[in-house]
């Protein structure tokens, strides 16, 4: 029982203090190996290797591996619970706040004001990608930009735009 509590607390702490991914791998090393309570350094290296090879979240796979290594299936489940609980609670809090303020007048004004800024940012990023270090814009980029503008102007349905972009990508590139 003590090991299950240690696993839960370790992964709860790691996922409260990091944004998951590479940041949590370093923090988990400190919590699991440096303290000497959960894993040896070779076990940790092996765990990171396995979690990197498998598809999915490295942090969750590390949690399952460490939990299973120390306490079997209950340890894996408790570790996953500790790893998933902080972002889940945070998402519920943010969603409930957004749900409460979505009908506020200032929120509608905020969204209306930020829309042009996001559009300009997207155009700037697209321009940088299409330029790709070249001094002249390739004809494919002009064609895709024109098609995107036409889709926006004529308010085409998203599935049709995605299908057309896929077909165009096959033939243009």
Q: Which percent bin holds the helix content?
A: over 70%
Q: Number of domains in the coordinates? A: 2
Number of helices: 7
Please provide the ordered H/E string of secondary-structure elements. Answer: HHHHHHH
Q: Report the portion of residues in β strands.
A: under 5%
Number of strand segments = 0
Low-confidence stretches: none
Shape: elongated
Provide mean pLDDT, rounded.
81
Largest sheet: none
- Termini separation (Å)? 58 Å
Q: How are the secondary structure elements laid out?
A:
Layout: H1 2-17, H2 22-34, H3 41-53, H4 58-101, H5 105-131, H6 139-153, H7 158-172
Q: In words, what does this structure look like?
A:
This protein is elongated. The mean pLDDT is 81. It is mostly helical. It has helices at residues 2-17, 22-34, 41-53, 58-101, 105-131, 139-153, 158-172. It folds into two domains: 2-101, no CATH class; 105-172, no CATH class. The protein has seven helices and no strands. Helix 6 packs antiparallel against helix 7.
Which labels suit this protein?
173 residues; mainly alpha; 2 domains; 83% helix; elongated
């Amino acid at each position: 029982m003590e090991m299950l509590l240690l696993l839960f607390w370790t992964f709860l702490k790691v996922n409260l203090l990091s944004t998951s991914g590479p940041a949590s791998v370093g923090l988990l090393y400190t919590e699991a190996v440096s303290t000497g309570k959960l894993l040896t350094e070779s076990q940790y290296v092996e765990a990171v290797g396995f979690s990197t090879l498998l598809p999915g979240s490295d942090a969750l796979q590390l949690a399952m591996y460490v939990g299973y290594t120390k306490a079997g299936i209950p340890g894996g489940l408790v570790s996953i619970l500790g790893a998933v609980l902080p972002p889940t609670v945070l998402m519920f809090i943010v969603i409930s706040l957004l749900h409460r303020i979505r009908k506020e007048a200032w929120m509608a004004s905020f969204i209306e004001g930020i829309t042009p800024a996001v559009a300009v940012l997207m155009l700037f990023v697209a321009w940088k990608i299409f330029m790709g270090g070249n001094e002249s814009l390739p004809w494919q980029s002009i064609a895709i930009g024109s098609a995107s503008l036409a889709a926006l102007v004529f308010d085409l349905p998203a599935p049709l735009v995605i299908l057309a972009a896929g077909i165009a990508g096959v033939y243009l590139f």
